[in-house]
């Protein structure tokens, strides 16, 4: 009878430890950057009337193309998700007639954005 109580106690301890192991905040999580890491210098290269190919050359492929609007691309970057030092950046690029018309988001619009590359 004593061995059954000892087994039951060890079983309960093992079950409790395994159940709480996944809930611990001391578990190490790897920081994995996700999305398009862009710097302001990359965005500064954008000009009005650039083609889609030129934008891809400067910024790379977007993380998401709007499913409802083929003329909108989203460049998103996330790092340290769910932590105090979380970083998020978003850039939205819009096209009209296959030409770049506007940008918006967490980056400043370049001073020379409204000057087309070809004059």
TrEMBL record:
Keyword Lipoprotein belongs to the record: yes
Keywords for this protein: Cell outer membrane, Lipoprotein, Membrane, Palmitate, Signal, Viral envelope protein, Virion
GO cellular component: Bam protein complex
GO biological process: Gram-negative-bacterium-type cell outer membrane assembly; protein insertion into membrane
Membrane topology summary: Lipid-anchor
Signal peptide start-end: 1-21
InterPro entries, per the entry: BamE, BamE-like, BamE_dom
Location in the cell: Cell outer membrane
Pfam hit, one: BamE
Single GO MF annotation: protein-macromolecule adaptor activity
UniProt superkingdom: Bacteria
Domain annotation Outer membrane protein assembly factor BamE: ranges: 35-103
PROSITE patterns in the record: PROKAR_LIPOPROTEIN (PS51257)
Subunit composition and interactions: Part of the Bam complex.
Protein task: Part of the outer membrane protein assembly complex, which is involved in assembly and insertion of beta-barrel proteins into the outer membrane.
Family from the record: Belongs to the BamE family.
This protein's name: Outer membrane protein assembly factor BamE
Species whose genome carries this gene: Pseudoalteromonas porphyrae
């Amino acid at each position: 009878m004593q061995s059954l109580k000892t087994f039951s106690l060890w079983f309960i301890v093992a079950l409790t430890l395994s159940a709480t192991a996944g809930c611990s905040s001391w578990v190490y999580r790897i920081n994995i950057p996700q999305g398009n890491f862009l710097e302001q210098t990359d965005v500064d290269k954008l000009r009005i009337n650039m083609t889609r190919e030129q934008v891809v050359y400067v910024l790379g492929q977007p993380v998401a193309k709007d499913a409802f609007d083929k003329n909108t691309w989203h460049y998103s970057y996330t790092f340290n998700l769910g932590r105090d030092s979380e970083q998020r950046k978003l850039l939205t690029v819009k096209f009209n007639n296959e030409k770049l018309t506007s940008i918006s988001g967490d980056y400043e619009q370049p001073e020379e954005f409204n000057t087309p590359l070809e004059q």
